[in-house]
Amino acid sequence: MHIISEIYSHCVSIFGNIFFWMGLLGIIISLVESARLRHYRKPPVSSGMKKIAVITGASGGLGRGYVLALSQQMAAFDIDEFWLIARSEDRLNALSDEIHVHSRIFPVDLTDESSYGLIERSLKSGNYQVLLLINSAGMGLSGTSEKIGNTVEQRMIKLNDSATVSMIQLCLPYMTAGSRIVNLASIAGFQSMAGFNTYAASKAFILNYSRALRQELLPQKISVTAVCPYWVRDTGFIETASGHQSSPFLSAKTSSVVKRSLRTIKRRGLISTPSIVSFLDFILGRLFPDNVLSRIASLLRV
Ligand SMILES: NC(=O)c1ccc[n+]([C@@H]2O[C@H](COP(=O)([O-])OP(=O)(O)OC[C@H]3O[C@@H](n4cnc5c(N)ncnc54)[C@H](OP(=O)(O)O)[C@@H]3O)[C@@H](O)[C@H]2O)c1
């Protein structure tokens, strides 16, 4: 018994030390990266050049929330014009009228390959710099993979992952030092989730893709931020994804998620956990084995 307790205390001290120093190293790397991203020489702006913010999923939920918030702080993000992307033309038009900021609307379906040609031609046709790209279009559906079926699962992957990658590939040639890429991930990406499998996996993709892309784009001083909310109450997403009519316990408001994540985006942080639940799950995701956290998350339907 004595030997077991000796081994136990040795393990705790060795692993405790490793966790502590690796954690500290991680924090230092993040701080250095953010500082490097904040120091860049502003590229020259040619006459007639328009600095734009491209926002997918702009017709509702978080995407719309970002447009409303950013329209109040155009100078802080150095934006002249919005490009608003989603399928509902009427809702995009209404938003464009509401914000009183020059904006172009693109009523397209991002799961349809041909949609990208229109956006690409528009970028090519003018003198544009993409200073901000927010990939907010997304969908989630609860249920087992078997129940959801292949067609819907493929559509979810196309919208949540392929569309995000395609939009980044499309906009990158028009980005410059100081540009920002924002990808809407989710805390669902912090662990695997039975009963929400494809959605959680699609967000894990976004999370890791954003992490590596940030390193790749560091020399060009283009920042990448992954926003990882818990449930957001006043969105169209919640009803289909949660399978409940009422808002889950501790769900956040769109305005609060947008406000908190914009702080991280502004200071060019990598991961935004815009509520206490997101932050706690992020920490637990670093500490707990996936088969434990995944079961807790599925029970709580995080
Ligand atoms: N709400 C939450 O609880 C929550 C939590 C964590 C993460 N997230 C993530 O946050 C992001 C935004 O979600 P949300 O809450 O704002 O959802 P939402 O209210 O349902 O809005 C989704 C947006 O995406 C657009 N969209 C959907 N399908 C599209 C398609 N095929 N092509 C182009 N646009 C399409 C929708 O507009 P149209 O219908 O007009 O096309 C809408 O503007 C998503 O990536 C979601 O996974 C949400």
Describe the structure in your own words.
This protein has 302 residues and is an alpha/beta fold. It has 2 domains: 1-36; 50-300, NAD(P)-binding Rossmann-like Domain (Rossmann fold, 3-Layer(aba) Sandwich). The protein is built from 12 helices and 7 strands. A 7-stranded parallel β-sheet has the order 3-2-1-4-5-6-7, with helices on both faces. Strand 5 (180-184), helix 8 and strand 6 (223-227) form a beta-alpha-beta unit. It is globular and about 75 Å long. Bound molecules: NADP nicotinamide-adenine-dinucleotide phosphate (NAP). The site of NADP nicotinamide-adenine-dinucleotide phosphate has 29 residues, from helix 2 and helix 9.
Tally of individual domains? 2
Helix content: 40-55%
Distance between the termini: 40 Å
CATH H level of the largest domain: which superfamily? NAD(P)-binding Rossmann-like Domain
Q: Give the strand line-up of the largest sheet.
A: 3-2-1-4-5-6-7
Hetero groups in this structure are:
NADP nicotinamide-adenine-dinucleotide phosphate
Keywords:
single chain, 302 residues, alpha/beta, Rossmann fold, seven-stranded parallel beta sheet, 12 helices, globular
